[in-house]
């Protein structure tokens, strides 16, 4: 699976079990081609007439790396791949792909949970791994907004529910990048402004929350909880779907907020980041509480992903890099995340060893820290 | 011409005729050194005293790749190159370089047309290729502004003239990035606000249009026309000359406008994009109607261009990538655009084949689609 | 020291003495491990518990490239390295590392001067090199603010002091990126607005200047001085410490100011730039008075730095690139800046020679210009 020769210690470190610190449940049901195509593209729409989402780096990667896990030759046609997927059934496909990833612990963002998706516990069982929960802030807020009668209850319930959910979780997650962009005012909003905004919100609670005041209130409430329980907060940054405005998803735009959190000691974990992963690595290099990984970008850039990891390694301190697959809906994402993390790291480490920059012991240590060691420390697994 | 060994099918696909979906007319007259230097730099000024615009990646590329087309050794001195150019005469030089590019169809932006430049038809004749027109919106607007007596005529004439010109063209082009930046308000301006702005405009119609209201009106008028005639709209983004503010030329800044166009089905073609080509590839991956190429960036980064194409390939769906040379003034730009497109794609495809990521059939198909297939489909050639 | 075989002329040009056009004084005293760690990270804080700033690309580079200069094996443990440093004493360590860098002239930003740092003259003596001063604008302003009794004196004294200091210097430097970001209003502020702002400022003169009006006034005063004396103005852009907001440090954000300076002929030198070095190279390509280097980024990205230089070379004209180490506090920065500049340029030039893009004479000339020739011309050394 590794694209280069490496000293044994480095090879072993790269092939050791990974902690996937950010993923979602995969679908338990058999999928039509149309359903499968929708789940392998962030476009959330079918490919234009006459084209297919298989004609992407990710599509090619599924044919290359997932086909053999289903006993097929590499590069089989999409129809053959999907036929075999159907033949084996979703349960077997999920077990094979999740286990092929060599992941020892899944940290599952449950914000997108649905009956047809594996639960956190099931992800662990199917993958032969441990599984813990990451609580998505905006999902909690939606639940509260739909049930709170008045603004004061909204505020109280939000704090209580977050604390209760956090008690069973290993981290929190914010998608504020999607809702108002990362260039938000970093200060904690006043109680008066939150009450006023909550009153507006409760008049139409089924709408998706986009009010910056309430989004900031949610975040600062989460900061209190995270601080109490020593939990990290994950942030979606960079690459996402069409709901996102990429020009407002650069993690450097939240420098003020990161600065405000520094004295509180709450770890900030930057997810995905692409194409702002250099900015993210910079933040992780200068702020002691910032961590970073390129998650989703590895899977979607696939055959072109090695450069992205190499660019991340330009600045990221060895103790700040994490691994995630961000798999969602299909287990292919999990396997490919692991494949491209290992291949990309292998290429990057080999280049540094071959040029004499790092010795093998350094390289092995970096591989271990990024693959699992850092996540165990940050999430206290 | 290709820098690596490739399976025959891939090699053939790369060497097949290209559709250059965005270029300008080249000069028909013989050029002095000063004139030539101005045309090979986006600075629009002479190089500082004691320096030369030949001391750039593009200058070196001319000496390397264009010299042999004029029967010279690679790497000849600039004076020798220009002497030979003079000796052959502009007509012969243009014919040789345009034909050496292996372009089968030129789509010519006629917005910068001048008597000393080849017309669209002449570009085709000299290049031994088909040639079609791309209508530059801001040029039409300028013509209308200089002749319309009052605001209502301005609005009516603009729509009529755009429709008339579009009837003979294969696409439209906007340079709104130059005029007010891509972070413009994506909504269609109200009729009242347009009338008011048009009245201001008509008081000084020879000025270059920079009013965001009229620029947006122009764009939305073009959207109506494009929709009626199923034409794509090209947008200058990224790298340009000193009139541009690069920090307002990131295509991700126009996400709101792209989103607004999605239900209308009007294709959006992002030109150049550098250094925001990863953002552009992202947009093409998540929005079904967005297409992308790195045009001008290939020619100007020359010997360093392969990485840029490779970065584009990280995310761009195979059915979304196009080729253009953006040649302007000198035919060298056309030849070099084709050279670096083919060399860069060759390197990128070879790497993916060699690492087992893609098979040769995939690679050949990608080369064909990016080189001509996608352009034929999008522009309905 | 070079990672690839190169024609003799290119090799000689790369190994020739460098002009380090931007650095700071290094510490004259022996440093504890804690002190040393603080000086090798832009975080300005200790590494998180259980981690070390040696676990960074820069830390690994010190063990790799500086250890042999202190007679140690490459890759020794941090404790061994620091023990040897202590054993030799700061004076000997500084002499060895500064001289190993092969720098023939240091241009020293004296804005951070402190008694425990080598002065400009001492940097020259220890390094066996010439040494000249770069005047930091914000330091001059701080001195004036703390002594001027009223606003008019403030304005007069600022102009006089800048002129006096500039008379003994080879350049000026602005850190406006740190103070209000590079997206500042490019126009010269009115005298009235400056007087009003100066009055506010003088009521609390020990505060660090952050008022955009006074920062712009400072800059335009510097422009007058620079124009009179034909001095370049350096700008911190991109990568810096936690005081910086990276999203406001993109040099393209100061396009308006650069445009305003073009007719005045004042050279603008963009420092560091990472991760906006492509934007910086673009500015240097289109504006005749803009120069660029990646300074600090080379040292901190260390084993990953070659790509950054290669990306800069995508667009930078050969007569626009400079070299700096930005060393500060520890002489390791100077040696590593030189090492990675030479290694990165070697790799980039070798690739262009091997692919036939440039000939050896071109490559040697580029190496010479970037290493020292351009700096001699721009700073009139």
TrEMBL record, chains A, B, C:
Any Pfam family the entry gives: Amidohydro_2
Translocase among keywords: no
Matches recorded under Gene3D superfamilies: Metal-dependent hydrolases
Example of a GO MF term: hydrolase activity
Residue stretches spanning the membrane: none
Cross-referenced SUPFAM superfamilies: Metallo-dependent hydrolases
Entry keywords, A to Z: Hydrolase
Source taxon at top rank: Bacteria
InterPro entries tied to this protein: Amidohydro-rel (IPR006680), Metal_Hydrolase (IPR032466)
Keyword Hydrolase carried by entry: yes
Amidohydrolase-related domain location: 211-381
Name of the protein: TIM-barrel fold metal-dependent hydrolase
Native organism taxonomy: Bacteria, Bacillati, Actinomycetota, Actinomycetes, Streptosporangiales
């Amino acid at each position: 699976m590794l694209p280069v020769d490496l000293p044994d210690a480095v090879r072993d470190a790269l092939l050791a079990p990974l902690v996937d610190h950010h993923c979602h449940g995969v679908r338990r049901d058999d999928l039509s081609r149309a359903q499968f195509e929708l789940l392998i593209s962030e476009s959330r729409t079918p490919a234009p007439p006459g084209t297919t989402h298989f004609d992407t780096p990710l599509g090619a990667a599924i044919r290359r790396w997932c086909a053999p896990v289903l006993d097929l030759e590499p590069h089989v046609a999409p129809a053959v791949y999907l036929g075999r997927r159907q033949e084996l059934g979703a349960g077997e496909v999920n077990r094979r792909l999740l286990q092929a990833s060599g992941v020892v612990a899944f940290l599952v963002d449950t914000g997108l949970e649905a009956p047809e998706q594996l639960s956190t516990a099931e992800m662990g069982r199917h993958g032969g791994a441990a599984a813990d929960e990451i609580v998505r802030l905006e999902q909690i807020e939606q639940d509260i907004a739909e049930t709170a009668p008045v603004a004061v209850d909204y505020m109280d319930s939000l704090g209580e529910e977050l604390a209760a959910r956090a008690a069973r979780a290993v981290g929190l997650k914010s998608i504020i990048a999607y809702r108002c962009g990362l260039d938000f005012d970093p200060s904690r909003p006043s109680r008066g402004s939150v009450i006023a905004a909550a009153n507006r919100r409760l008049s139409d609670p089924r709408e998706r929350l986009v009010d910056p005041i309430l989004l900031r209130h949610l975040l600062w409430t989460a900061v209190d909880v995270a601080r109490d329980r020593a939990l990290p907060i994950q942030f979606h940054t960079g690459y996402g779907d069409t709901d996102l405005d990429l020009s407002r998803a650069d993690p450097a735009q939240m420098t003020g907020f990161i600065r405000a959190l520094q004295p509180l000691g709450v770890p900030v974990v930057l997810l995905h980041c692409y194409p702002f992963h250099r900015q993210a690595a910079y933040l992780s290099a200068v702020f002691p509480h910032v961590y970073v990984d390129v998650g989703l970008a590895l899977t979607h850039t696939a055959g072109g992903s090695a450069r992205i990891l190499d660019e991340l390694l330009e600045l990221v301190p060895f103790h700040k890099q994490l691994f995630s697959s961000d798999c969602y809906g299909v287990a292919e994402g999990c396997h490919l995340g692991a494949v491209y993390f290992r291949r990309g790291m292998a290429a990057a480490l080999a280049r540094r060893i071959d040029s004499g920059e790092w010795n093998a012991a350094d390289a092995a240590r970096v591989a271990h820290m990024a693959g699992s060691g850092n996540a165990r420390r940050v999430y206290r697994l």
